[in-house]
Structures are given as structure tokens and as C-alpha cells.
Amino acid sequence: MRQKKGQMKIQQMAFMLIAVTLFLVMAAMFILMIRFSSLKESAKLLEEENALSLVSKIADSPEFSCGSAFEKPRTNCIDLDKLMALKSRFKDYAGFWGIDGIEIRKVYPAGNEECTSENYPECGKITLVTSETGTGVSNFVSLCRKEQGELIYNKCELGKVSVVYGGGD
């Protein structure tokens, strides 16, 4: 009889150890789930920050930027004359910036017509590469070009650069 009571106590202890272990495992899984969900949010925020940085970096790259063509160097300024010259040769830059799509659009004055050599500068957007998939991000920039009236002067308009990346992954 005493032996049966001892076996019963051992079984009770084993069941309790299993129950406590299962509880601790489930609690650990819950904590890890909370931590990983915040990690995903942090990764998404970091990705968005990197994308905005990429847009500014592209706008300030020598192929796009106003540089010293205007009175003083400007940040987030795109030279439209340079961009139109680059548009026909943009395939040479495939993969250079690691992007899948890029579009430059005039915000003010607004326009939807694609820029060509025939209708430039009376147009509204320049599409260098199109992409239907991926993460898109945009940023506002100055779109400047040389205009000729009685004198040659700089004409700047408000624009928006939209970049799509990560569509092929």
C-alpha cells in the first residue's frame, strides 16, 4: 500500500512538472511572438527610411542634380534638361541605383503628359523605368531648367520623384 502511494506521488509530480514545463514554453512563445512582431515593425520603418534616403540620394546624384549649373549648389534639385538627355540613355544605367522604377512628375503646374523631345518643357512627367510591383516611395524635389526669354534664366517648379524598388525579389 505504501508503495502504491509513493508511485501515485511520483506520477503526480511528473504531471505537475509536465504542466509547469508546458506553461513556461507557452509563456516563452508568447513573449517571443510579441518581440518578433515589434521587430517586423522596426524592419518596416527602417525600410521606409532607407527608401526615402534612396530618393534623396538619387535626386542629389550627378546624373540628376542641378549641381553647379545654377547659381549655387542645391539639394533635392533635379535638372530637367539633364534628365531629358538621360532619358534616352537610361538603359545604360540599369541596376546602377538598385531600383525597379522611377518617375518624375511636376506637381505645380500639374500635367500628366509624358515628356518627349517634341513637347519638352510643356509636359508633366518623365518616366525612366516602369514597374508594377515592389515598394514605392516618393519625395518632393525642385525641378529646374534653363529658360530663355530676353535673358537666359533658371526656372524651377515643384516636382515629385517616385521610386519603386524590390519588385523582382
Number of strands: 5
Rg is: 30 Å
- How far the N terminus sits from the C terminus, by CA atoms, comes to 69 Å
As laid out across the biggest beta sheet, the strand order is 1-4-5-2-3
Question: Count of DSSP helices?
Answer: 2
Q: Which percent range fits the helix content?
A: 25-40%
Topology:
Blueprint lengths: L1 H58 L17 E3 H8 L13 E8 L16 E5 L5 E14 L3 E14 L4
Parallel strand pairs: 1-4
Antiparallel strand pairs: 2-3, 2-5, 4-5
Account of the 3D structure:
- With 169 residues, the protein is an alpha+beta fold.
- The chain has one domain.
- The protein has helices at residues 2-59, 80-87; strands spanning 77-79, 101-108, 125-129, 135-148, 152-165.
- Strands 1-4-5-2-3 form a five-stranded mixed sheet.
- A hairpin with a 3-residue loop joins strand 4 (135-148) and strand 5 (152-165).
What is the structure about, briefly put?
Helices cover 39% and strands 26% of the residues.
Features:
alpha+beta, five-stranded mixed sheet, rod-shaped, 169 residues
